[in-house]
Design goal:
By secondary structure, this protein is mainly alpha-helical. The chain has one domain. The chain is built from eight helices and no strands. Helix 4 packs antiparallel against helix 7. The two termini are 29 Å apart.
Length: 197
């Protein structure tokens, strides 16, 4: 049997994205207006893990990334939400959401420091899946704009939580805490990916 260590990274990613076993996105409550949009990211551990990881990784990467990544994520997430509202199909949404926590958690846990544009593209790609999932949940009678505004604000607050935690890297013990937090987020992502949570 061939070891997954010998598979090219793009092959592994393709397998994960085509997997039907993931059920990362929790369907918590009925989406409606601003309050529903605001509380929705706060009731799904899968979304919370990824959104905190964005802020955490941004703070870990430095001042420019700390503010740029948490802006990229909600902006692109809103675009993904618009695609979901418009019923534009996007394959592997649940897997993409779960894999976002895995990938972002691993980036923090292993102290990966790519160029800022690479980090931005990665964060933006995952944001599309999160936004699309939210957008497809909106019933036709809901106020999509109010929901989106609430969701973006809550997302920003989760990013700020990640940034606050990530700022601990200024101390040697804090680096251990930050990297351990990344490992926990990646572990949660794997649980979502394989339907454990």
């Amino acid at each position: 049997m061939r070891s997954t260590r010998k598979l090219p990274p793009l092959t592994i990613l393709a397998i994960l994205l085509s997997s039907g076993i993931a059920s990362a996105h929790s369907e918590a409550g009925t989406a409606g207006g601003f309050v529903s949009g605001f509380t929705h990211p706060l009731t799904g551990l899968d979304h919370m893990a990824a959104m905190v990881a964005v802020g955490l990784w941004g703070a870990f990467l430095g001042s420019r990334a700390m503010w740029l990544l948490p802006v990229i994520f909600p902006v692109v997430m809103a675009m993904g939400g618009a695609l979901g509202v418009a019923a534009v199909p996007l394959p592997g949404v649940e897997t993409g959401i779960a894999f976002s926590a895995v990938a972002l958690g691993i980036m923090v846990a292993t102290a990966v420091r790519p160029p800022l544009w690479v980090a931005g593209v990665l964060v933006g790609a995952f944001a599309i899946f999160h936004g699309h999932a939210h957008g497809t949940e909106l019933p036709e009678s809901s106020n999509a704009l109010a929901f989106a505004i609430g969701m973006v604000i809550a997302t920003g607050l989760l990013h700020l939580c990640g940034i606050a935690l990530g700022l601990l890297v200024k101390w040697s013990w804090g680096k251990i805490v930050v990297r351990a937090s990344g490992a926990v987020i990646a572990g949660l992502g794997f649980c979502f990916l394989f339907g454990v949570l």
